[in-house]
Each structure stands twice: as C-alpha cells, then as structure tokens.
Sequence to fold (240 residues):
Amino acid sequence: MTDISIAVGGRELPAYLAVPEGEGPWPGVVVVFEALGATGDMRAQADRFAANGYLAVLPDLYGGAPWVRCVVKAMREMRAGRGAAYEHIEAARAWLAGRDDCTGSVGVCGFCMGGGFALVAAAKYGFRAAAVNYGMLPRRPEEALRGACPLVASYGAADPTLRGAAGRLERALTAAGVPHDVKEYPATGHGFLTESDLPGPLEPVAKIVFGMGRGRENAPDGWERILAFFDEHVAKKSTM
Fold:
C-alpha cells in the first residue's frame, strides 16, 4: 500500500494504491471518496478491495488540498456530469488498466459524493461495473444512465437526503436495460458501509440530517453484494 501519483493533463494527481498479496495480474477498482476526501477510512476501503484480489487506486480528487476548500466545486462538477474530477477518475481508470499487474478490467466504487460520480462515470467511461453507495442521482437518470455498465447500489431508507433514490434508480436502470442490483436497507442512514470519522462539530449534525451511523449492521451484506457483483462483472470478464 503506497502513495503514488498519476499524470493528468501535465499535472500529477496524488493517489493511494492498494495491491493484493501474491502475483497478478489482478482486476482493478477505482475508489471514489466521499465529501471529506482521501481519509484513512477511504484508504481502508481500497485496502478492502486489495484484500479481495483487486488492484485498487484511490485518486485524490482534491489534489492534496483540504476538503473544505474543494468540496463545493467537486459537488458542482458531480451534479453537472463534467469537470476536472471526472477527468481524474478516467485518468485513474486508464492508469490502472495500463499497468502490467492489472488485467485491464476495471470497476469503480464510490461513496456518498463519490457514489454520484460513480453513477455518471458508469455510463461515461469504460468501466466493467460500478458500485454506487448512497450516491445522488444525476438529473434525468433514465437518459444519463443509458449505456451504463452493470451497477450495484446500496441506500438507506432512513437517509432523508436520498428518500426515494433507490426506487428511482431501479426504475431508470430497468428502463435502460442495465444489469443491476439495487437495495434499500430499512432503518438505515447515510454512510453505513464505512466507519468515517467526522470532524467533531459535524458529527451531531450528520446524525440528525443524514441519519449517519444508523444501520451499520447491514454493512456486511452490502459488501458481500458489492464483491459478488464485481467478481461476476469485473473479475470474471477479465479472464476472457
């Protein structure tokens, strides 16, 4: 596990690379972080993928700057479906796919804000599968997700900011003919798949506004679905 950099448009993008044990080549995963950036918790998710046989890279979409200076711009780009953050995600995918220790088959997994990026990237770039975890839906999802790669998504029914998102996503993917596994967990809030450490003043607000911390007992099921889906659509296809 090491800090690396990826060339993007004449600049160097900081990133974290998690490498499985043993000998490759392995399928790859681009991990797209939540709003707080490339935290230790987000690195742990890259490590999780590596422990399950995936070469995982976590690009720092903030370029090393503090999240408070970058999050508003990143959210705007995520909603617009274009911008530097998307270029960085695609650069990370191409960089992984071109490595000798990668099979060339790459998925994308995003959390919170990163889930919104992963949704758009699923139809925008050459990913084999996408995992969308409590990600905001793009405008006109039926149009935006046309031609998307297979997609697995997890939402919490007790997350008031994404009420109804799972059902809308399910309908959009069905209409677009995209293979998918969308699940909404009852009595579950935002961020239940990870152990994010929020800055002190934000924690009580997040619990009220997002239902943060509720339903973490559902994390094992969520991860089992993600890894099974990636094994089918990313790892299996890499052997063809």
Q: What stands out?
A: Residues 142 and 171 are 8 Å apart (CA to CA). The mean pLDDT is 91. DSSP finds eight helices and eight strands in the chain. Strands lie at 2-8, 11-18, 26-32, 55-59, 102-111, 130-133, 151-156, 180-185.
